[in-house]
Amino acid sequence: MTGKRTLPGEGAHAHQHDLRLFKGIEAWVFDLDNTLYPHEADLFSQIDDKISRYVQKLLDLSREEARAHQKELYHEHGTTLRGLMKRHEIDPDDYLRAVHDIDYSGLLPNPDLASAIEALPGKKFIFTNGDRPHAERTAAALGISEHFEDIFGIVEADLIPKPNRETYDMFLAKTGISSARAAMFEDLPKNLAVPHQLGMCTTLIVPKGTREVFRESWDLEGEPYPHVDFVTDDLTGFLKAVLGGLG
Prior knowledge:
It is a single chain. By secondary structure, this protein is an alpha/beta fold. The chain contains ten helices and six strands; from the N terminus they run βαααααβαβαβαβαβα. A six-stranded parallel beta sheet has the order 3-2-1-4-5-6, covered by helices on one side. α6 links the parallel β2 and β3. The model is unreliable at 1-14 (pLDDT under 50).
């Protein structure tokens, strides 16, 4: 394997590797928000706003102060939830209900994505820092629920979020999959570092229309994310290309 994009029809999606890297994959692991649905679907922005409002009400802060505190907690603890639990001893169930009380009506069924996921050989999982009910509602809205073996959410992870190593260990222990025969799809580069260390094939999902800009910036920076094998701004198209490469 050359380490370069060598399959012309598929290279439009790949970052640096030949898509035949996916041969032998038996488990397909997908993040949820901004991964299984596109960034422009504007679903996660609702959650983000709900989190800010939760922090604002909980701590009696201004909107701006709440937003700043939310981001501080996120960067320090991996999720705002974990930061609030550590600093303010909140009820996680109350938090998860509140921040996932959003409008899913703008999320439309995606039969092409459903067909591509169904055609992947092996088992498929959703692995999210959100909770199971949110993942279930999102998958139902997209029309892809029936194609997944299971959902591993933040509650199943004992409220310890990605990118903590122990979260991935819990996921692997529960599902029983081999990391060396697994592929993971994520919208956050930091959440792909541990999967790469574990031997997974990693794909980063970026907002539509940004892939080339993203790739060019990487070229200038000298591969800042060596733990990312592929980059795409079109999950459905990428999966179809992968299926084509599998023969």
